[in-house]
Amino acid sequence: MDNSFIIDNLLQQQEGVRLEFKAMTNKEHIAKTITAFINTQGGDLVIGIDNNKKVVGIKNAEKVRESFQNLLIELIKPNAPISSQVIRYKKKDVILISVWEGAKKPYQFKGKIFIRENDTTKLSSKDVLTSLIKERKEADFHWERKAVLGADLKDLDIEEINTTISLYIAYKPNSNFEDVEDFLIQMGLLQDGNLTNACIVLFAKQPNRFIPQSRIRVTVYPSNKSGDHFLND
What we know:
Elements: H1 4-11, E1 19-22, H2 27-39, E2 43-47, H3 61-75, E3 76-77, E4 82-89, E5 92-99, E6 108-109, E7 112-117, E8 120-123, H4 126-138, H5 158-171, H6 180-186, E9 190-191, E10 194-195, H7 197-203, H8 207-210
Parallel strand pairs: 1-2
Antiparallel strand pairs: 2-5, 3-6, 4-5, 6-7, 7-8, 9-10
């Protein structure tokens, strides 16, 4: 699948809280940046493109990607969802690492807590650490329940929702929904008049319009427990 359009979209943006380009494959720097993204707002790190947005590429990109993926899963604690892929762009391979804002802050790399401030990765101060811990304790809901501002019913695939409703009623015959909106409300996908992240991922016609980092990822582990080794990813 040609995912070069993802890099095109990212290159139209400036480095900031949620985006960084990196020419080199320095493991320490990349792990710190990814940890900072998870502790802040999530984000995308592109390896193989320098700060001036020149595409320099990465040799043996798939091997490097797998090495980074295993390192990040092993050393960032607590565990966080991390997605990585090699993308062919302008005849060169680059690596895209995407993460979401974590629900179990603060996240640590080698025992240290990093945050993102504008386009800079930095160690957390005592005040920020206190704020992260407070945010975790006071969180009433996870990422999937947060509102997506600017999205409404016309952005959803109503046919897909109706198919889901039919399957749900077949599964639970006593269920009763007045219409699509009532179904979304009862399922917690429409809260206080706002569609949630989960609703957009499940039913939006173009989910990446609202959540650019949304992906479908399948990982096959060698046993029934997760770990840092995969049969396929």
